[in-house]
Amino acid sequence: MNIVGTRRCTPYGQDLINAFVTDMATLCPGLLVVSGLAYGVDVCAHSRAMECGLNTVGVLAHGLDDLYPTPHRAIASRMVEQGGLLTEFMTRTNADKINFVRRNRIVAGMSDACILVESAAHGGGLITADIAKGYNRDVFAFPGRVGDTYSEGCNNLIRDNGAALLTSAEHFVKAMGWEGDASLAKARSEGIERTIFPNLTQEEAKVVETLGQRGDMHLNMLATQTGIAVNRLTSVLFELEMKGVLRTMAGGMYHLMPQ
Length: 259
What we know:
By secondary structure, the protein is of the alpha/beta class.
């Protein structure tokens, strides 16, 4: 699951994260917590996960030769031993604003569920939640007090049916169908599993066939050649990236990885 939200996490948000992650560690001890290693909600989620013995992965918006924000270097070093750091960006790629938006699709796509803890009316957490919904992931949000700045985004999302209201770890586990070891094992087996020889859906196979025949292509050209709508194709391409079948090149080109 991924936990996202504002960089200005309030004591209320910190308490929510600490209680939720602690309970999840008991209910689902093999859980992986994903976030973006930013200030606020992200780093709080990473820290609490490690304190509770859970693995946690930080998805970065820059190359691995640097670490932003600098004060999180210590926790990042611990994460290497208890989860890891992940990036699609090459060495010497700066932590530019646009890269944070781009990395959100990885945070959203590599998790079975997206949990929004606190957010203002506009923010990166809401972008991640929207992407997750587009990828057919389950999206949840903790409610907050009406009128609180950093609860407004969560409350609006729940009001507009963009996220399910979340109140506890027990509620989350039940909603995900993870009750008991058997259900959790099933959830894992049906989750995003990277394999050397992945089983491809019909749409994924069509994309692979097209790239194999025509070489690297842009999204719009791929949509034209495969007959898959762009909004659907972005999800298909992400799944193929996660399976290690293709990768995004400079200029937005999609490249089929060698077998």
